[in-house]
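Email to the structure team, subject: Crp/Fnr family transcriptional regulator model.

Hi all, the expression group asked for a predicted structure before they design truncation constructs. Nothing fancy, just the tokens so they can compare against earlier work. One-line instruction: predict Crp/Fnr family transcriptional regulator, return tokens.
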Amino acid sequence: MLDYHTFDNLRNSSDWPSRIFEDFMCETAVLLADRTIEFQTLTAKERYDSLVARYPDIFQRAQLGHIATYLGITLQSLSRIRAQK
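Reply from the structure team: attached below.
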């Protein structure tokens, strides 16, 4: 991990660090916008289906409580959605 001073010196030393940082920030902004739109337009079931489609092994890698929080639902709602499958 770089401290701010080292990062700032690197960023100002050439163009490529700035381009990488800008690309990262743009990608992050797009992902955040997509996630916001998903929360506003999809049901909990649709958000669940989208997550499983993107990350099929998510239930082997993350705790159910964390998945429920990511989806913006309670653990009980997640259990009901999973039981419907």
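The chain has six helices and no strands. Residues 1-41 form one domain. Ping us if the truncation boundaries need rechecking.
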